[in-house]
Amino acid sequence: MKIYDIPGFPSPLRVRVVIAEKHLASKVEFIKIDLPAAEHKQPAFLAINPTGTVPVLELDDGTYLAECTAITEYLDNLEGNPTLTGTTAKEKGLIHMMQKRADDQLIDAIGIYFHHATDGLGPQLKPYKKPEWSDRAVWGEMHRDKAIKGMKYFDQVLKTQPYVAGEQFSMADITVWAGLVFAGFAQIAIPEECTALVAWNAKVSERPSVKNPA
Predict the structure, then answer these.
(1) DSSP string computed for 125-167
(2) pLDDT tens track for 73-121
(3) N or C: the chain end with fewer CB closer than 10 Å?
(4) What's the gap between Cα 36 and its chain centre?
(5) Which residues on neighbouring strands pair with residue 4, listed in sequence order?
(6) How far, in Å, CA of 4 to CA of 45, rounded?
């Protein structure tokens, strides 16, 4: 298998943690895509993933899978022993619900703020920004506030259970953790009152897969 990504960036980190959790690093070849140079917006990459985003997983038969959730589902179920996406109908439902909330309230909100209300990854990506997102004051504050609200929501969740979707570490935890990494890049601090979220982040950051992702 091949993974097209760039090391250290939030969405690639999500899949790299999954690969480490599943002990699949020896089965994956990583191909670096130069995001600051807008390589992911060029025809060669768009032929692989028309949405122009990383990571992308290429299977041995030539099939391409994009989107972190889809890649995680595939890798987690590859050997019939899912540990990150749930084993019962209830677990799967809860994990996917919290995964969606983590995407919407953290990763996506911070991404819009970072790429459209700051200089983002630099001038070579400016032509690919949506023109209606050019008002930094409006879009920046709106999505920064949404991300902070998301942090407060997950703080409340984590006051009542050890992990984002319940009792077990799951892909929803990976997404929230990556969202907090992204928040650090974007200089959006976790509110001081979010003590449960801070404690959870410290705990998750000590997992071997998070300390040493693939």
Answers:
(1) GGGGS-GGG--HHHHHHHHHHHHHHHHHHHHHHHTTSSBTTBS
(2) 999 999 889 999 999 999 999 999 999 999 999 999 998 888 777 765 6
(3) N
(4) 18
(5) 31, 56
(6) 9
DSSP-derived letter for residue 101 is H
Which residues in the chain belong to E strands, given as ranges? 2-5, 29-32, 56-58, 64-66
- How far apart CA 9 and CA 15 sit, in angstroms, is 10
Task: Tell me which amino acid residue 54 is.
Answer: V
Structural domains for the chain:
2-77 (3.40.30.10), 89-211 (1.20.1050.10)
Name the token pair of 130.
């949506």
Q: Please report which confidence band the pLDDT of residue 137 belongs to, taking 50, 70 and 90 as the band edges.
A: low
Q: Which of 12-16, 112-116, 148-152, 193-197 has the lowest mean pLDDT?
A: 112-116
